[in-house]
Design a protein that fits this description.
By secondary structure, this protein is mainly alpha-helical. It has one domain. The protein contains 4 helices and no strands. Helix 2 runs antiparallel to helix 3. The radius of gyration is 29 Å and the shape is elongated. It starts with a helix and ends with a helix.
């Protein structure tokens, strides 16, 4: 009885490919803003991220596909729905982790872009105080 596996594989691959295309299309805009000086790097990073997303999620989908053998169609359908639910949850978690990483990268770039680099890193010493003068006159005895 391979029909549940076939249906699951088709659904898992279709979900992963659909989400990968959506992330690729929307990721282009985000990465182009993140790397405005080099659009080629933004496109390359976007393609690498989509490839990694596809490999990770397809591999995970096939890892969780194993289920116990049953002759009851209701139980087989229930198992299929449960496996697809676990897959969708994992896809969502991976997506939000990815977005959090990009948000942090973007925040770091925008925070450091507005801070001018100081010309001179030497800080002049403070002017002497009365306590310093009294200490130096007492040390000469």
């Amino acid at each position: 009885m391979t029909w549940p596996y076939t249906i699951y594989a088709l659904c898992a691959v279709a979900l992963t490919v659909g989400l990968a295309f959506t992330l690729h299309r929307n990721g282009k805009v985000f990465l182009a803003e993140l790397f405005p000086e080099n659009v080629r790097i933004a496109k390359a990073i976007n393609s690498l991220l989509v490839t990694g997303f596809f490999m990770l999620n397809t591999g995970y989908a096939f890892l969780i596909s194993r289920t116990e053998l049953t002759t009851d169609r209701f139980i087989a359908t229930e198992n299929l729905i449960q496996k697809l639910g676990v897959l969708l949850l994992s896809l969502g978690i991976i997506h939000f982790v990815n977005m959090a990483v990009f948000w942090k990268i973007r925040r770091n770039i925008t925070e450091t872009a507005g801070v001018p680099v100081p010309y001179n890193t030497m800080v002049p010493p403070p002017p002497p105080t009365r306590a310093d003068a009294a200490f130096t006159s007492a040390a000469t005895f």
